Amino acid sequence: MTDSSTVLIDARGLTKVYGKPGDKAGFTAVDGIDFQVRRGEAFGVLGANGAGKSSTMRMIACVSPATAGSLRILGYDSGADGAKIRARLGVVPQDDTIDTELTVRENLLIYGRYFGLSWKVLRERSTRLLEFTRLSEKAEDAVATLSGGMRRRLTIARALINEPEIVLLDEPTTGLDPQARHLLWERLFQLKQEGVTLLLTTHYMDEAEQLCDRLVVMDAGKIVAEGAPAELIARYTLREVLELRFAPGERQIMTDKCRGLAERMEELPDRLLLSTDNGEETLSAVHRQGVQPLTALVRRSSLEDVFLTLTGRSLLD
Amino acid sequence: MHTLARAFSAPAFRELGYWLFRYRRTWRGSIVISIGNPLLFLTALGLGLGTLVDRENSAYLHGHSYLTFILPGILIAGVMQIAFLEASGPVMQSALPRGSYRAAASTPLEPTGILYGHLMYWTLRATQNAVLFTCVSLLFGTVDPARAPLLVLVAVLVAIAFAAPAAAWAVTVTRPSQINVMFRFVVLPLYMFSGTFFPIEQLPVSLQWVAWATPLWHGVDLGRTVALGTATPYGVLIHIGYLSVMVAVGLYLARRTYRRKLYV
What we know:
The structure holds two protein chains of two kinds. Chain A is 34% helix and 27% strand. In chain A, a hairpin with a 2-residue loop joins strand 4 (68-73) and strand 5 (76-77). In chain A, helix 3 (104-114) crosses helix 4 (119-132). By secondary structure, chain A is of the alpha/beta class. Chain A has three domains: 1-19 and 27-88 and 165-181 and 192-234, Rossmann fold, CATH 3.40.50; 97-163, no CATH class; 238-300, 2-Layer Sandwich (Alpha-Beta Plaits), CATH 3.30.70.980. The mean pLDDT of chain A is 89. By secondary structure, chain B is mainly α. Helices cover 80% and strands 0% of the residues of chain B. Chain B is globular. In chain B, 45% of the residues are buried. The A-B interface holds A 18, 58, 61, 63-65, 82-84, 86-87, 89, 91, 93, 95-99, 101-102, 106, 109-111, 113-116, 162 and B 9, 11, 14-15, 17-18, 21-22, 25, 97-100, 102-110, 262-264. Chain A: This is ABC transporter. Chain A: It is a peripheral membrane protein.
């Protein structure tokens, strides 16, 4: 049993197959996933490109009918009551749909009209939201003059025009420079503090660790792990990781010498990762074996390592 | 009043509002075009070509001046052309991943509301064009003031009859070149051979049959017979029936293609 006052999104056996029904050549993007998102939580969907994140988001945004399974949002069925659900959602799509022929403020006004809000309400809200997203000075400017980060903030301001209970963000910081990302994270954190439920997809580990209370890891349309970031790190990795880089000619020999020195070893194209409870000790052991890396780095295990353990692949591949 | 207010807050009106909001930027230019276009046509074809044609006293014109004869044809064919252009390029653009339909679809609007809202916009634009064109024609004395309003109504019907199927098709299009091909090989031939510039009775009989089958001829002939006062009940019925079927089929298809495109 789910309680609709606390569980805002409830997906059971959610499946998305592209192509005609019964078509053998159909492509299964989302393969029977189950998850719940609770009120006030920041929930992340983590996965590499093509893992099924965006398809999942589009189904939750009620612009893509589920092929099978059930999806209840805010107590409504996503298939039957799409319009009622969308009225209470804020959507920040990966491909932003900002109107480049209108000004920054006009974009908020005209989008708000789609929700049936009055001009009076919209004028007041647009001023407040432009302030919130630090775009007040740009209010009357053409969208074309905005930087990538500003444009993304405008998309977020627009998504908040109907005062949504849930905000969906599909890869919100992809393509932004570090400064723009940090400002965006800070604003999203502020939203979360105000009690807005956030659901975001990302392939950035740091983003997931910064923002998400809880997340699912998706791979090939399935959920392969679920939990809080710290929980997942504790469950799927050892405490530390030793990263070694070698001169190109010596890589294979050095890698072979390292075998058996750590409980788990991952070979990436550019470096070797040794999972261990004590990185310094392992590094000493490496040196004792006569291994001479170009660089050696001991760091704490992160979500990146969780993903690597679960899928055998790096996230940004 | 209360029900009226509620009707105007229906989803389709919100989409109409979007297009009208954008139109605020271009309305002056569009009015200049709506008035300039008939001025150019009436001057070139009436004073220029018309003088030449009228010397022949062709029996096909049934005693009308060439200008009076072609005026409804140019209006109807022009309305068709504008309806196609407004319901093809902008629809294709709007349905692209970054297009305005995508923004609207993430709000309470449904694909059908988006379609009807955009269709209302084309209807308003066609009405504006037809009214201005007819007003210019009145100044030239080439249209009977009593029949002018009927001519406007015919023009609006033709605009919807072409806009609906054009939108149904355009929402599935992904490359602008496809629209160019459709314009050159379908819309322009219709414009030329549907009795816009000459009576189709002049054509060989086999080509007359082709002209009778084409949709624009029904619009042109309806407009012309209404404007010249030669309409027969039977003819009017067939023409309106043909155009109404286009509206109905166009809307049926567009509802499906819009839904399929926007709800992948």
